[in-house]
């Protein structure tokens, strides 16, 4: 047995372990935080005219990033064609991804893309972008003449689009899709069984045993992403407690969650869970939607991107129909308000090298020609007025009809855009309520506590909504 | 001659060390710098706030929760991985019948080695996606499907795995299910490591022990384990790092990246939330720096405790 004085197994192992320290998990996380010193961007603009309101420079290049989610990205290529017809010399570098934040956030402080569709599960937190001054106010886009219709861009948009994209009094986010949320059902199945889609929870609870008797679960939802059940909870709260209650909740008003009507709305959902009306298991969005398409559940709660997302697997003879969220009781303050709003938002980074072309591209996206192509390809409405007029699609038609009969206000909630903490907390608690681990009363208490905590936290910038 | 060697070595090392300093060490220092600011991550605006982020860290409930969950992994991941890897390595090397050829592993041990090592060649993301299907919380999940077919699980009440925060032995079930994956994916590598170490133990020691009438139990605990002490100790440190990370599994597999309702929150998921969702990079960097210090201290402590006289053979 020999002993090597310089290097033995013991010291070799020790040195290997020491080297290992440099690849610790913390190391990876540490370097994730690192950045570099940014340089100011110089924004070159050319001559402005009515046809070129932002002064896009000829022969410049614009980098556009599209979120390739439920709506796909085929529509964006149509918008590129609309844009290029007017600005043939401008090079459009378009890419699409699902990892918006992963790919775009590291570039935001230095050399960002010119136009980013900030959407999906991996989006950049909007209030942070606004608070950090990282994105450009786009009020001049609203005031610019519309691409191919009379009046300004603002005139051409559906109600809610401008207010949804407004933060701290300035217009930052251009939402291009107009989404209607509600309870979807299979029209063919319902007419075959002679079922009438319920309008209220009461009617739903009356119908549910008949659905169950056919071996079908009355309801299914995405249990993986907390924001799916949260839409339904907030829609019920709005219908029951009225608009002002939700505005107060968004504004972190004291005891806003304890307002009259909030608790009864949540108790309906508690009953849905307690009566075992939900399909067993925990499915994600596409799994739950597929289960619904397979006839395992009667109702699913989701937005109008559903048809495009599931296009490949819709069985023949399946009639996708959208109905409004169920009303809570006869005392509802806003039973006819529909949960609809502009979604899929574009932002222009403050440090984008070619902001003029980015805005001009948005003008093309919001054009009549571009938005009609959007509706045709995605079977969803665009946020530009009249986009769905020439699209013949039964699912889109029910959404259109729902909008026509809607009350004076659209259900809209700002809470999750305003505060990341409350976004996370409300998602978590919605999942807990729907999993039967929280009662409606506990949900209210915990939400109120979370809201109070944010209200007191001085490190969080406060936001308010008026309408 | 001697200084010629020094110049030769320096010439070779300059470039890699330079790259290392610039791409690894410099970002570390930057992160430490950012941890003293209120940087939001999306702009070049930042204010120096001193140690405020570190003070806040100690009152953050979520951090406390994440800390205990990481401690859980810190204890269980090395314990179960090493125990399983040792068991497998022992069976594959010295667990078989002894005959004229001496000590050997169980029948077919060459094949088993490949099978057990297999998870190591898969990326953690692939492993997570695969286990999502195994853990799928309805009748189409691998485990649920099989158990429903043989009637052990009720059709209407599937095991919910990643969505189950109910405590088991005081720890949320979701953490135990994550532990299964971590151990499964890690055991193969350490089995190979321990196998190599076991093969360097002279066979005559075993033979002498067997002649003296030692059974398998005693040969393992009296001979194999003590002689593997160095290797096990290093494995423990490495597995400690893995246990303090666990980010990929939590991020991909759990609802709300740390859910349900914070039941699987760990340091890394809290850092991710603060930096990328809440836009508080300064605070997130402070957590990361604290975690780095904690990791280094732990590793130093670990190596210190296990240091003792070596056995040479």
Automatic annotation (TrEMBL), chain A:
Keywords for the protein's UniProt record, in alphabetical order: Signal, Transport
UniProt key word Cytoplasm: no
Where are the stretches annotated Disordered? 34-54
* InterPro entries listed in its UniProt record: Bact_solute-bd_prot1, Chitin_NgcE, SBP, TAT_signal
GO (cellular component) term, any one: cell envelope
Q: Which residues form the signal peptide?
A: 1-34
- The main location is other
Subcellular location per UniProt equals:
Cell envelope
Taxonomically, the superkingdom here is Bacteria
Q: Does the keyword Signal apply?
A: yes
Q: Which family does it belong to?
A: Belongs to the bacterial solute-binding protein 1 family.
Q: What name appears for this protein in its UniProt entry?
A: Carbohydrate ABC transporter, N-acetylglucosamine/diacetylchitobiose-binding protein
From TrEMBL, chain B:
Pinpoint the ABC transmembrane type-1 domain residues.
Answer: 67-302
Membrane-topology descriptor: Multi-pass membrane protein
Gene Ontology biological process terms from the UniProt entry: transmembrane transport
Q: Which domain of life is it from?
A: Bacteria
Tell me where it mainly resides.
membrane
What is its subcellular localisation? Cell membrane
Q: Which residues cross the membrane?
A: 12-29, 71-94, 114-134, 174-193, 232-253, 281-301
Q: Which GO terms describe its cellular component?
A: plasma membrane
- Which family does the record claim for this protein? Belongs to the binding-protein-dependent transport system permease family.
The protein's name: Sugar ABC transporter permease
Upper classification of the source organism reads:
Bacteria, Bacillati, Actinomycetota, Actinomycetes, Micromonosporales
């Amino acid at each position: 047995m020999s002993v090597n004085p310089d290097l033995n197994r013991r010291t070799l192992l020790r040195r290997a372990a020491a080297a290992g320290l440099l690849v610790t998990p913390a190391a990876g996380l540490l370097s994730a935080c690192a950045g570099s010193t940014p340089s100011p961007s110089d924004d070159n603009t050319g001559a402005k005219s009515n046809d070129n309101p932002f002064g896009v420079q000829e022969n410049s290049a614009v980098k556009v990033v599209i979120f390739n989610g439920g709506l796909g990205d085929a529509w964006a290529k149509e918008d590129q064609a609309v844009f290029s017809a007017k600005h043939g010399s401008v090079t459009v570098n378009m890419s699409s991804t699902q990892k918006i934040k992963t790919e775009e956030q590291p570039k935001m402080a230095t050399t960002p893309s010119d136009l980013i569709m900030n959407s999906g599960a991996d989006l950049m937190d909007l209030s942070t972008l606004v608070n950090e001054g990282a994105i450009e106010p786009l009020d001049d886009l609203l005031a610019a003449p519309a691409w191919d219709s009379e009046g300004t861009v603002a005139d051409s948009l559906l109600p809610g689009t401008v207010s949804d994209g407004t933060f701290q009094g300035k217009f930052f986010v251009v939402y291009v899709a107009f989404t209607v949320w509600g309870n979807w059902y299979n029209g063919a199945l319902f007419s075959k069984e002679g079922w009438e889609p319920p309008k209220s929870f009461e009617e739903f609870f009356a119908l549910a045993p008949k659905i169950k008797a056919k071996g079908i679960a009355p309801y299914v939802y995405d249990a993986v992403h907390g924001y799916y059940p949260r839409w339904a909870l907030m829609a019920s709260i709005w219908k029951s407690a009225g608009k002002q209650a939700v505005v107060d909740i968004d504004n972190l008003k004291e005891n806003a969650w304890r307002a009259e009507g909030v608790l009864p709305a949540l108790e309906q959902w508690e009953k849905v869970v307690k009566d075992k009306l939900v399909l067993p298991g925990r499915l994600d969005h596409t799994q739950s939607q597929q289960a619904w398409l397979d006839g395992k559940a009667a109702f699913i709660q989701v937005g109008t991107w559903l048809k495009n997302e599931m296009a490949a697997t819709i069985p023949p003879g399946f009639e996708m129909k959208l109905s409004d969220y169920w009303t809570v009781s006869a005392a509802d303050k806003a039973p006819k308000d529909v949960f609809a709003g502009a979604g899929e938002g574009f932002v222009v980074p403050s440090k984008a090298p070619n902001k003029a072309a980015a805005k001009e591209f948005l003008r093309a996206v919001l054009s009549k020609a571009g938005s009609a192509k959007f509706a045709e390809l995605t079977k969803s409405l665009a946020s530009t007025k009249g986009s769905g007029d020439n699209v013949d699609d039964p699912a889109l038609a029910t959404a259109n009809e729902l909008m026509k009969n809607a009350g004076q206000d659209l259900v809209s909630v700002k809470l999750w855009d305003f505060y990341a903490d409350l976004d996370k907390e409300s998602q978590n608690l919605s999942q807990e309520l729907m999993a039967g681990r929280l009662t409606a009363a506990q949900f209210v208490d915990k939400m109120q506590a979370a809201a109070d905590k944010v209200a007191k936290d001085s490190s969080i910038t406060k936001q308010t909504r008026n309408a | 001659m001697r200084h010629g060697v020094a110049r030769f070595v320096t010439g070779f090392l300059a470039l890699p060390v330079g790259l290392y300093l610039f791409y690894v060490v410099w970002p570390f220092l930057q992160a430490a710098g950012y941890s003293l600011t209120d940087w939001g991550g999306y702009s070049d605006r930042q204010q120096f706030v001193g140690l405020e982020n570190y003070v806040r860290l100690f009152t953050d409930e979520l951090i406390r929760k994440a800390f205990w969950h990481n401690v859980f992994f810190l204890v269980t991941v090395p314990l179960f991985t090493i125990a399983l890897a040792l068991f497998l390595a022992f069976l594959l090397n010295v667990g078989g019948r002894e005959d004229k050829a001496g000590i050997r592993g169980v029948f077919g041990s060459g094949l088993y080695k490949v099978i057990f090592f297999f998870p190591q060649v898969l990326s953690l993301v692939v492993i997570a996606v695969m286990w999502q299907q195994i853990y799928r919380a309805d009748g189409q999940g691998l485990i649920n499907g099989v158990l429903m077919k043989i009637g052990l699980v009720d059709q209407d009440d599937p095991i919910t795995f990643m969505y189950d925060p109910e405590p088991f032995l005081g720890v949320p079930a979701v953490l135990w299910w994550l532990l299964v994956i971590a151990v499964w994916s890690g055991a193969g590598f350490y089995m190979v490591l321990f196998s190599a170490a076991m093969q360097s133990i002279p066979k005559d020691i075993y033979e002498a022990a067997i002649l003296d009438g030692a059974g398998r139990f005693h040969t393992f605990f009296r001979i194999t384990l003590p002689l593997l002490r160095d290797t096990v100790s290093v494995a423990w440190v490495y597995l400690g790092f893995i246990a303090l990370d666990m980010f990929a599994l939590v991020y991909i597999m759990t609802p709300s990246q740390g859910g349900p309702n914070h039941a699987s929150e760990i340091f890394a998921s809290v850092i991710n939330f603060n930096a990328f969702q809440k836009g508080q990079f300064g605070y997130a960097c402070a957590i990361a720096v604290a975690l780095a210090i904690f990791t280094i201290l732990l590793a130093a402590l670990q190596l210190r405790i296990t240091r003792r006289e070596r056995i040479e053979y």
